[in-house]
Write a structure and sequence with these properties.
It is a single chain. The protein is mainly alpha-helical. The chain has one domain. The protein contains 6 helices and no strands. The longest helix has 43 residues. It is elongated, with a radius of gyration of 20 Å. 18% of the residues are buried.
Length: 164
């Protein structure tokens, strides 16, 4: 017997719905914060942070790994002063593409998965492109790769439910 309440449209799995909502929150927050950083970007604020870090590094009370992280942070801040607008613009663009991909997957469109993956991979390489590879960038990359992989794998589990 046919279901009288069926609309003929495929049903979105609850797990996919939850993943999309989490992505809407995370990527939405990323988009808003990067646009805010872009609008409020002033090198003077970063110069003050650089002076604080320089004072901490100059104190020489931390262990050598602490000094290494402080120097790496200093490099990242100096890079942000030079390329801040490009870094925040690219990060906002990746967040927007991620949101579009998640919305497409919410609508059960398979191309949304590819957009989401491209945005996540692109976002990983913004900071290393401008700052190079140092300890702070590697820590950032490790955390970002972990969460990107978790979500990509979780979305891939729902890939068969997506249509063309």
């Amino acid at each position: 017997m046919e279901n009288p309440f069926s609309t003929g449209r495929p049903v979105r799995p609850t797990f996919l719905t939850v993943l999309c909502i989490l992505t809407f929150i995370g990527s939405g927050w990323g988009l808003i914060s990067n646009l805010f950083q872009l609008a409020m970007f002033t090198p003077e604020r970063l110069v003050a942070q650089i002076q604080e870090i320089t004072n901490m590094v100059g104190a020489e009370v931390q262990p050598s790994w602490g000094s290494s992280i402080m120097n790496s942070s200093l490099e990242v801040l100096q890079t942000t002063i030079k390329y801040g607008k490009a870094i925040y613009s690219l990060a906002a663009l990746c967040a927007m593409i991620s949101l579009i991909g998640a919305f497409m997957m919410y609508k059960l469109k398979r191309n949304g998965f590819y957009l989401y993956v491209i945005a996540q991979i692109g976002q990983l390489f913004i900071l290393p492109i401008y700052s190079g590879w140092n300890s702070v960038v590697l820590i950032y990359m490790a955390m970002s790769v972990f969460w990107a992989l978790v979500f990509i794998i979780l979305y891939a589990l729902n890939y068969s439910k997506l249509r063309y």
